[in-house]
Design a protein that fits this description.
Distance between the termini: 14 Å
Oligomer: single chain
Radius of gyration: 21 Å
Organism: Aeromonas media
Strand order of the largest sheet: 3-2-1-4-5-6-7
Pfam family, one: Glyco_trans_1_4
Largest sheet: 7 strands, parallel
Helix content: 40-55%
Structural class: alpha/beta
Mean pLDDT: 94
InterPro entries: Glyco_trans_4-like_N
Protein name: Glycosyltransferase
CATH class of the largest domain: Alpha Beta
Number of strands: 13
GO molecular function: glycosyltransferase activity
CATH topology of the largest domain: Rossmann fold
């Protein structure tokens, strides 16, 4: 049912992220009668975005690096797009759209919202790039109506560095998980071996190396335990792990590489525990929310974003960052608990997702914000 005819523009650094992380939000906007346009570099997800009912505009943008001339051109391209669409409201995701898109929206006198989806490498080192990023954020974040953060650590980082006004810094508990899609399922396998599953792009920063090292330690005492990797390798990222390295681990017999899949649910269902030993500055990891929604206990690092998804000892276990021994201890502790205790952890995890991370809660926050901003 058409409620209004306002044009909302969503801008991100990949079309893939819009489809995989925000399709429920986009569908809700369309159902509420908004005209939705996604602006991002084109990739394989464009047809699905259009199939949902959104318009799509390709954005020529380099997601990484700082090049003042190219970044000024990006702001100009965005301003041209916003004017051509007669946009009523703009939502920016990820670093460059947040900074340069917010400036372009201000230039066009169009209200906007910035959503930080994790700090990535931006605040890792105290170098010139970090200082430039601070200046850019502080200047550009004067203009959005609000700035949303996916976890409290990121929100506090911006507040402590005085990069955003307190009254504009709003917490959004992750980007939500569809609890009706990710439901508990029975295992298809009948063996009793404990299976640890890591789902992520194959990046060193995701803790893949620590996962492999922990697997070596655990398998000395529990040789039947299995350690699986699921996700793309050789991606365009300075932290990427090549397929040849994974093949070495496979030959060693320490891990099983599952490649990629369009539907993670059957693979999660067959795992006993989902692991993410990330030391990357995460927003809130989608894979952990999906696993918890399927009543799988979680082992993850006491790291930004990751710890938000776990209640230590109740829905899973936390380990130290960049510490394979700590991860191995957590895995061994999980092996030693009873099946009934594992089941209870899983049930508690799904309850936590329902209380804090249900996609319906996220959608409601968007809709309440539209009312607040008068986008009706």
């Amino acid at each position: 049912m058409i409620i209004n005819n306002k044009r909302i523009v969503l801008v991100a650094n990949t079309a893939w992220s819009m489809w995989n992380f925000r399709r429920g939000v986009m569908a809700a906007m369309l159902n509420a009668g908004y005209r939705v346009t996604v602006v991002a570099p084109e990739d394989e997800s464009v047809s699905q975005i259009r199939g949902l009912g959104c318009d799509f505009i390709h954005l020529d943008m380099s997601a990484k690096g700082v090049n003042p001339i190219e970044d000024i051109k990006l702001a100009m391209r965005l301003a041209k797009i916003y004017r051509s669409l007669s946009a009523d409201f703009i939502i920016h995701y990820t670093i460059k759209p947040n900074i340069y898109g917010s400036l372009a929206a201000r230039y066009c006198n169009i209200p906007s919202l910035a959503i930080t989806t994790g700090l990535g490498y931006t605040f890792v080192n105290e170098d010139i790039v970090t200082k430039i990023a601070h200046l850019l954020y502080k200047f550009s974040f004067k203009y959005p109506e609000d700035i949303w953060f996916l976890n409290e650590d990121d929100r506090q980082t911006f507040l402590n560095n005085r990069l955003v006004a307190t009254d504009k810094a709003v917490l959004l508990h992750g980007e939500g998980v569809d609890l009706s899609h990710f439901t508990p399922q029975k295992k298809s396998r009948s063996d009793q071996a404990v299976c640890f599953l890591l789902i992520a792009r194959m990046l060193w920063d995701k803790g893949i190396g620590e996962f492999v090292a922990a697997a070596r330690i655990v398998k000395k005492q529990y040789p039947q335990a299995t350690f699986q990797l699921l996700g793309g390798c050789g991606v365009a990222n300075p932290s990427a792990i090549e397929r040849t390295q994974i093949a070495v681990w496979e030959k060693e017999g320490v891990i099983t590489y599952l490649g990629t899949t369009e539907d993670v649910r059957p693979i999660i269902a067959d795992a006993d525990c989902v692991v993410l030993p990330s030391f990357y500055s995460e927003g809130v990891p989608r894979t952990l929310m999906e696993a918890a929604s399927m009543e799988k206990p979680i082992i993850t690092t006491d790291n930004v974003g990751c710890r938000d998804v776990v209640i230590h000892g109740k829905t899973g276990l936390l380990c130290q960052v960049k510490d394979a021994n700590s991860l191995a201890v957590a895995c061994e502790a999980f092996i030693q608990i009873s099946q009934s205790e594992r089941n209870e952890m899983g049930r508690a995890g799904r309850l936590l997702m329902a209380e804090k991370f249900d996609e319906k809660i996220v959608i409601e926050q968007y809709m309440n914000a539209f009312k607040k901003y008068g986008i009706l």
